[in-house]
Amino acid sequence: MTHRKSGIGSVLGASLLFLVACGSPPATAAGGETILRVGYFPNITHAQALIGLARGDFAEALGPQVRIEPIQFNAGPSVIEALFAGEIDLSYIGPNPAINGYVQSDGEALRIIAGATSGGAAFIVRPESGVQAPSDLHGRKLATPQLGNTQDVALRNYLISQGLNTVERGGDVEVVPTENSQILTLFRLGQIDGAWVPEPWASRLIVEGGGELFLDERDLWPQGDFVTAHVIASPSLLQGHPDIVRNWLTAHVGVTEWAVAHPEQARELLNAEIERLTGKPLDPQVLDLAWSRLRPTWDPISSSLRASAQAAYHAGFLKEEPDLAGIYDLTLLNQVLEARGESSVQ
């Protein structure tokens, strides 16, 4: 099942469904097994989902009484729509859509239960555009994957930090939210000057589109660490089936450790899954470059999430300064980490 992308307006509209469906528990099949509906994207920032589903780590950890129903998405706001509509129970997702979903539901729709990826996003420009410094971005046309998604907010916040602004906010920089595959096409055709995108698209713009790295987003964060993807769950899943969540997180941590310890095998398996899901594998050069810019982790890197929330507020996507006091529930993750002799996360 693949959900089409949709804008912030659709997410806000979908919040009406929240009152009816968001608290729905996981479905039960005719045979009595629990159906766990899991969202993920077919890209390397959701590495644990792709690897764990392909190898059977999650199925083994959950046992025969739980059937996993994987649901493929293209962008975060679509995940939040599905969560509001009661169509998924758990998902891998970027920070800003999670923030939006939490805020729009008054803190009721979701909890962040683990981290997944640090890093893995970059701002790429066409050499022919002549963009070499922030001041060169005046009057440019730039792209992001989707209005209000994590990279869209990051670009808009970066422009503000450089004394620039978008056309709709009185500036002269045009930001065009566009599907990642279309960004690559527009980039090749010279119809955009640059794009702020997640991996592997940043590396594809370089290898396949002849682009240049203008900014690795890691350079904007302390120690180069910022959350690109984490794991969210519905409160009904957490309250009604903590054992399922704990078992999922046990596999998630195990897959993370394996991917870090076996990067070549992890990349190979990821590429096979990407080919299966999208019909085309990544160029090995793209995959290697993209993997070098990210780090699988179970740490949610909460300080960067709060900074992203402030960026969304300053970019105009949130009407009020967000209160994220209850967005995390790391109790089960820390139980898993303690059992494995690992340090807890905050």
Kindly report the name of the CATH homologous superfamily of the largest domain. Answer: Periplasmic binding protein-like II
Q: Ends: how far apart?
A: 34 Å
Q: How many discrete structural domains? A: 2
Q: Write down the secondary-structure element order.
A: EHEEHHEHEHEEEHEHEHEEHHHHEHH
Helix content: 40-55%
Number of strands: 13
Assess the beta-strand content as a share of residues.
15-25%
Q: What is the residue-averaged pLDDT?
A: 90
Main β-sheet description: 8 strands, mixed
**CATH topology of the largest domain, what is it called?**
D-Maltodextrin-Binding Protein, domain 2
CATH architecture of the largest domain: 3-Layer(aba) Sandwich
Query: Please, how many helices?
Result: 14
Q: Give the low-pLDDT segments.
A: 1-21
Please compute the radius of gyration using only Cα atoms.
19 Å
Structural class call reads: alpha/beta
Shape: globular
Q: Return the CATH class of the largest domain.
A: Alpha Beta
Task: Give a short summary of the structure.
The protein has helices at residues 8-21, 47-55, 57-62, 76-84, 95-104, 150-161, 180-189, 201-207, 235-240, 242-261, 263-278, 284-291, 302-314, 331-339, and strands at 2-3, 27-28, 34-40, 66-73, 90-93, 111-119, 121-125, 141-144, 174-177, 194-198, 212-216, 227-233, 294-296. The radius of gyration is 19 Å and the shape is globular. It is of the alpha/beta class.
Provide key terms for this protein.
346 residues; alpha/beta; D-Maltodextrin-Binding Protein, domain 2; 2 domains; five-stranded mixed β-sheet; 14 helices; 13 strands
